[in-house]
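tool=predict chain=A
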Amino acid sequence: MVSRSHSASDKPASTFRPTEFQQRLYAACKRIPKGKVTTYGALAKALGSSARAVGQGMRRNPFAPVVPCHRVIASDLELGGFSGQWGNESAEVCRKRSMLADEGVAFNGTKVATKAVLGPEEMASLAGPAARKPQ
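tool=predict ok
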């Protein structure tokens, strides 16, 4: 297990000023309904960005749970990280799993059941055209 300190830009939500990308990311994330998840890659595709940028933006999210970053998972349907921690046994990833289960997300072992996963096209439709990277 690798533990990373949670930054959320090390600022409280009241003083945090999201970048233009983070604004689009958080707006798109808020559209993921309870009982569903999407992957970092699918969200990245909807935003015209990269999965790594989405992961970093989620890690810096000071607006949880209003911006439900716990609904974004790894492409292999494992939970990925949460609050700067990685590994299915870490306290924060266990909390992420519990939050998703409470919202009705089903699991197959350590992975999210595919019926709960929104793919790139579904995520792009939910996020809307304003989510796309400005040209």
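The CA atoms of residues 74 and 126 lie 19 Å apart. The longest strand covers residues 37-39.
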